[in-house]
Write a structure and sequence with these properties.
The complex is a heterodimer of chains A (176) and B (604). Chain A is mainly α. Chain A has three domains: 31 residues; 53 residues, no CATH class; 55 residues, no CATH class. Chain A contains five helices and four strands, in the order H-H-H-H-H-E-E-E-E. The longest helix of chain A is centred in the middle third of the chain and has 22 residues. Chain B is an alpha+beta fold and 604 residues long. Chain B has 13 helices and 30 strands. In chain B, strands 1, 2, 3, 6, 10 and 11 form a six-stranded mixed sheet that branches. Classes of the chains: A mainly alpha (176), B alpha+beta (604).
């Protein structure tokens, strides 16, 4: 390659691309410096909002087979057949649930009895839902407790690892 | 000075750790919730560490799913996950390692387990498996007690009273491998008794001098009997362990399994073959059903319990199979099978002795616990009162299987029938209020309490070595080809030799050849309690049991030494930690320790 040609190519390459053409660089004894190792950003596992929900489903399936039960078409089975399965499933689900969340009623009262409310304030809609003959102001002295409500007072779920949260239960293959 | 005393129950199926702070204030024993993998990727705390070890295969679990708070990448899984995954893949599960430590036909230091593992799966030795459980407990302690390092605490490990000296040494070896500094060995029935004392500060009001307490400890895999005598000295009550029973490889797990196998047959008759996981579920349900059906108060409970096997695969309801088990069936299986009503002269069936024993565990040939108990009481006659059989006045029961009240009731019924026939008073139970909650943890709790007692803060049971030991000496008779020279037994350790004491045996000299291993045949007896050390038994009879041989090796010394034969005498001692040791002592004071040869035992 002619020196003029090389000079021009170098000039325009640097001008427009910001680099010296590789063949010219080699010819003049330059070697490419090893790209400085760029510290890879520490991989922070991305936890999506849905992951927690999937994890709960995973746990309920693994320990008490809830998904199997809900996804099965039980229309054709006799009641006592369903009853036998549910009895077992119910105690497993309950144990699983209480292992991972602590449940408590929102109002610890007796259903069917009168429950007093503060007339001066509208009740917190998160906690209390007024039903029936609700006054226009949304404020009332109280009424009959129809449902105690449920709230979770503590959650105890293991930290999410590298498991794929979307797989609720792996397929099982028995090797004979 | 240790801050805590730690008691460890290294069980056949479950292990537990209890601890108590060393303090002048009255303190109570706490059970450690042990962090462990409860499922892949999930660490939870359980009061027990299941004694199961799983050898994970390559790529079997998602990366990081086996991480423990103290170990990101453990080689083995111990505890709950090991147990549950082992049901799905038994080829990689190590279980009942403890039973192998006392197995006369196998070398517990060799990689034997999982017994049925196919080629290519790494096996571990029973000692290594025990070490893994102990190591897990140690790490769990360090993780939960960052301020008080495990190695600086005073640690006790329990073993069945019926463990012989070699099995105790293997347990201690596992502990040493697990990095335990100097664990003290304690017998499980004694630990159960200490737990009772810990629960009953007024225990002195419940027993009197002259009483004889029978402890029946039915663990997961072993059943252990012990007699403790109460006496008085200078106005203080004294306790002395006077007898321990033979090793019975039979426990609560065998009983639950018997019920499950029976139920499985019922399913089979209806054409349903259960797979391993379904059977495991059945086993768990049978355990629970047994507790309901055999509860002390039978009046309110149903006469039968449903057994439900959910369908495999996603067809849960459709595949569900139902069965049931009745009280009468469980009663006949457990009470009549394991605790039959027998006379005080009953004897268990003899162990089968095949010429070529298959490697495996020596399960008790006779499952009748009451027959073993009758035999034990007869063997303990004499030194524990009673002409023909020992007559206990009090009974302490321990073990998870006793949560079924009818079993407890049956043991009383049988014992009392013996005592009544002999004209003795009925036996009294030593009870605690919180009994049922404690059956699983009493041994660990009691071990921690005993640790305190050793520091002088509580009563201590005297006992010493629960057997007498002998070495075989060939008689000096002209050799007859083809006939082994008759063997005599030289008593080296007297029954009841206490911790920290020593016996010299100048009566007999042995010539050891330098540079060659010398081996002694080794025997023990649970029943010969009066042989003075140094005495010679003319013939080795039924009452002596042969153990693993013991051997010693005198290393050749520097070139200048021409010495070839060293005359020695024997000396035995029990260390402060409860380990039996035998030494060869030369006239110039040099000493060599005799070691158990477990390899020989396996080949024998």
């Amino acid at each position: 390659m002619s020196r003029i040609g090389s000079a021009f190519r170098s000039f325009f390459s640097i001008l427009f691309s910001g680099i010296l053409p590789e063949d010219i660089a080699l010819e003049f004894g330059y070697t490419k410096a090893q790209a400085a190792p760029v510290a890879r950003p520490v991989e922070i596992p991305k936890i999506k909002v849905s992951d927690g929900a999937l994890q709960m489903l995973q746990v309920l399936q693994r320990d008490s087979r809830l998904i199997d039960f809900l996804m099965e078409d039980i229309a054709s089975y006799a009641d006592d057949q369903i009853g036998a399965a549910v009895r077992s499933l119910h105690s497993d689900c309950r144990a699983t649930l209480s292992r991972h969340v602590t449940l408590a009623p929102v109002i610890d009262g007796v259903e069917g009895t009168f429950h007093k409310l503060d007339r001066t304030n509208t009740p917190d809609p998160n906690r209390i839902k007024l039903i029936g003959n609700v006054p226009a102001s949304g404020k009332t002295d109280g009424g009959t407790l129809r449902h105690r409500g449920w709230q979770v007072t503590s959650v105890n779920l293991p930290a999410l690892g590298k498991q794929d949260p979307a797989v609720l239960a792996p397929a099982e293959i028995e090797v004979s | 000075m240790p801050e805590y005393i730690v008691g460890i129950d290294l069980g056949t199926t479950n292990s537990a750790l209890a601890y108590v702070p060393v303090s002048d204030e009255p303190t109570s024993v706490t059970v450690l919730p042990v962090p462990q993998l409860v499922s892949a990727g999930e660490v939870g705390e359980l009061d027990l560490l299941p004694s199961s070890l799983y050898v994970p295969g390559p790529g079997e679990f998602v990366e990081g799913a086996l991480a423990l708070p103290w170990n990101q990448n453990p080689k083995y899984v111990a505890g709950q996950l090991a147990r549950s995954r082992g049901v799905e893949n038994a080829n990689r599960l190590v279980a009942s390692a403890k039973s192998w430590l006392s197995n006369q036909n196998a070398d517990a230091t060799q990689p034997l387990l999982p017994l049925s593992a196919p080629e290519g799966i790494e096996k571990v030795s029973p000692v290594e498996a025990s070490r893994q459980y102990l190591e897990h407990l140690r790490a769990a302690w360090n993780y939960t007690h960052s301020g008080a390092k495990f190695d600086e605490q005073s640690v006790l490990i329990t073993v069945p009273a019926s463990f012989d000296a070699a099995a105790r040494e293997l347990t201690q070896r596992a502990a040493k491998l697990a990095g335990y500094p100097d664990p003290i060995i304690l017998e499980e029935p004694q630990a159960a008794f200490y737990a009772w004392i810990e629960r009953n500060p007024n225990w002195r009001e419940q027993v009197d001098p002259g009483d004889l307490i029978l402890v029946v400890d039915i663990g997961g895999g072993t059943t252990d009997f012990t007699l403790i005598a109460v006496s008085e000295k200078d106005g203080e009550l004294q306790l002395e362990r006077v007898a321990v029973g033979q090793h019975i490889l039979l426990g609560g797990d065998n009983m639950d399994l018997a019920v499950a196998r029976f139920a499985e047959q019922q399913f089979l008759q209806r054409g349903t073959k259960l797979d391993a996981m379904q059977f495991h579920s059945l086993w768990q349900q049978c355990r629970a059903a047994k507790e309901v059906l055999l509860a002390s108060d039978e009046s309110g409970a149903a006469a039968e319990q449903p057994l439900t096997i959910l369908g495999r695969g996603t067809g849960l309801v459709g595949g569900t199979i139902r069965g049931k088990i009745s009280r009468d069936e469980v009663r006949s299986l457990l009470l009549d099978g394991f605790f039959p009503v027998v006379g005080a002269d009953a004897a268990p069936a003899r162990q089968r002795r095949a010429a070529l024993m298959e490697v495996g565990l020596n399960y008790a040939a006779d499952p009748a616990v009451t027959k073993h108990l009758a035999q034990f009481l007869r063997q303990s006659a004499g030194n524990a009162g009673g002409e023909d059989f020992a007559r206990p006045t009090h009974l302490l029961l321990n073990g998870g299987v006793l949560q079924a009240g009818a079993i407890e009731h049956r043991i009383f019924e049988v014992l009392n029938s013996w005592l009544q026939q002999a004209g003795a008073n009925a036996i009294t139970e030593l009870r605690t209020e919180t009994k049922s909650a404690d059956l699983m943890h009493a041994v660990a709790r009691g071990a921690a309490y005993y640790g305190l007692a050793r520091t002088g803060k509580g009563v201590r049971i005297r006992g010493g070595v629960p057997r007498s030991y002998y070495v075989g000496v060939e008689s000096a008779m002209p050799a007859v080809p083809g006939i082994a020279a008759p063997m005599k037994a030289f008593a080296v350790v007297p029954f009841g030799l206490e911790e920290g004491s020593r016996v010299e045996l100048p009566q007999r000299r042995f010539a050891l050849v330098v540079g060659e291993p010398a081996e002694f045949r080794f025997f023990s007896s649970l029943t010969r309690k009066d042989d003075a050390p140094g005495s010679l038994l003319e013939d080795v009879g039924e009452d002596l049991e042969e153990l693993a041989p013991i051997e010693v090796f005198l290393p050749p010394q520097g070139d200048g030494q021409q010495e070839e034969i060293v005359p020695v005498t024997l000396e035995s001692n029990v260390t402060e930690t409860g380990m039996l040791e035998l030494w060869c002592v030369a006239s110039d004071g040099r000493r060599w320790k005799l070691e158990f040869n477990v390899r020989e035992r396996a080949a024998a």
